[in-house]
Amino acid sequence: MERANPFEPLSLGEIALRCAQETQKFFQHLAHESGYCFELFRRAVVNGDQRAWDLVYQQYHAQIMRWVNRHPAFAVCHEEAQYFVNRVFERLWRSLTPDKFAHFTDLKGVLAYLQTCVHSLILDECVRARQAPGADEQELETLLERALYRDGQTPEAEALARSSRQRLWQWLASRLKDEQQQAVMEGLFVLGLKPREIPQAYPGLFTSVQDVYRLKQNVLERLRRDPGLGDFWDDV
Amino acid sequence: MPPEPGDTRLWAYLEGEDEALGSHLEACPYCRRRLERLSRLETRMKALLYRAACPEPLQLGEYELGLVEPAQAAILARHLETCPHCRAELTTLRDFQKREAVRPEADPYPQGISPRAIFPALRELVARLIPRTAAPALRGEVREQIMAEAEGVMIILDVRPGKDERLSVFGQIAADEQAQWAEAIVQFRRGGRLEAVAMVDDLGAFRCETLTPGSFDLRLSPLSGPVIVVPNILLQA
């Protein structure tokens, strides 16, 4: 039998006030009850109570500001911390569904999710955006349209991939004939490994780095002849 | 001149692993052009495919928290075995969560300042839009501001073109009880979905720079007092 929620009878105002008070006790090293804050999140996420969302923001924005400022990658970001605080709440609102919330049994789990939102946002905006070696999005789209159209790939299959880059990789991988070829392409271009690192990353597939160079050459030659890629290589 | 090296050797040279080829390349413009071509090809392939198989950081974080379906979790576990980048990101997340676990010693509020008492609004006011007026701007251009009013509180929005076809929305709240609006939460919602959030500063100003053009409901929630909703604001550059 499902346990009754002891906070259910309380008004949102009481919940928010007790959450603030209990948080204060926590920071003063006093005995405290974190259930009020958990209930505040529950009403926001599970009940979809807009005012509860406001109160979550008001209660936790200082905590999130602290996490943003203390994240190891924040130093390379060129935005103010407040920008990330706002984006974190947007991400939380979109990502934390009632289904996911059902996994949490206490406030600790919810705060860990908030930290995950901080971390993922900073990585997305500051780290991964810098790592990407300047792909031309237009070129990607043109290439994909041509390749997928030729293959008669269904929109459903296409929708499975999140990004143009991922769709291109799936398409290219489908043209490769065996595990070795896929490992070379994935290792060198998708993971950005050095040829010397490939035999170790894919144990049992290569006897030496020379195998990697030879396969790299074969695969690129094979793709160069692929009609699906057409004039992709012309200006290379 | 020694015989022309195969592409396999040129790939190795690009990785700094066949230095003996250097003297041939110095003397052979044809092979130098081949080498440049391979180098361009390598750069293009990496630009198109780099981290194409990686999950998004949030998905990795949800995997770490056990929120991902078992089938998807198995795929992510396999990916983590081969991808050093995602392993490193996950390690960063674990270290961050370990270091930043909420502890009494890590009070986010400045010492001596208590967490604010928060009282939910008793009621919601719907603001009325005031017919648009032209506002003077730089170099003679005329920009229209959006103005709304609810029980003596004025909300003024100045919308400008932003980065990546997004809009920069600069807002100002003017009220008799101006202090009440400091740290109010601003939300732009489209069809009920939260699109952007911001906080009002001490002077009653706020800004959002991630909105795309369209129609929004604006929701302003102060720490105390009624929430103001401005429905159906059309934002465009």
Task: Tell me about this structure.
Chain A is mainly α and 236 residues long. Chain A has helices at 12-27, 35-45, 50-70, 81-95, 98-101, 107-131, 137-151, 155-160, 164-175, 179-190, 198-201, 209-224. Helix content of chain A is 67%, strand content 0%. Helix content of chain B is 30%, strand content 32%. Chain B has helices at 7-14, 22-27, 29-49, 57-64, 70-82, 84-99, and strands at residues 124-126, 128-136, 142-150, 153-161, 167-174, 185-190, 193-199, 205-211, 214-221, 227-235. Chain B has a five-stranded mixed sheet, with no helix packed on it. A five-stranded antiparallel sheet of chain B has the order 2-3-4-5-8, with no helix packed on it. The N and C termini of chain B lie far apart (64 Å). Classes of the chains: A mainly alpha (236), B alpha+beta (237). The interface between A and B is large, with 97 and 75 residues.
SSE inventory with pairings:
The complex is a heterodimer of chains A (236) and B (237).
Chain A: H1 12-27, H2 35-45, H3 50-70, H4 81-95, H5 98-101, H6 107-131, H7 137-151, H8 155-160, H9 164-175, H10 179-190, H11 198-201, H12 209-224
Helix pairs in contact in A: 1-2, 1-3, 2-3, 3-4, 4-6, 7-9, 10-12
Chain B: H1 7-14, H2 22-27, H3 29-49, H4 57-64, H5 70-82, H6 84-99, E1 124-126, E2 128-136, E3 142-150, E4 153-161, E5 167-174, E6 185-190, E7 193-199, E8 205-211, E9 214-221, E10 227-235
Helix pairs in contact in B: 1-3, 4-6
Task: Report a brief summary of the structure.
The complex is a heterodimer of chains A (236) and B (237). Chain A contains twelve helices and no strands. Chain A has 236 residues and is mostly helical.
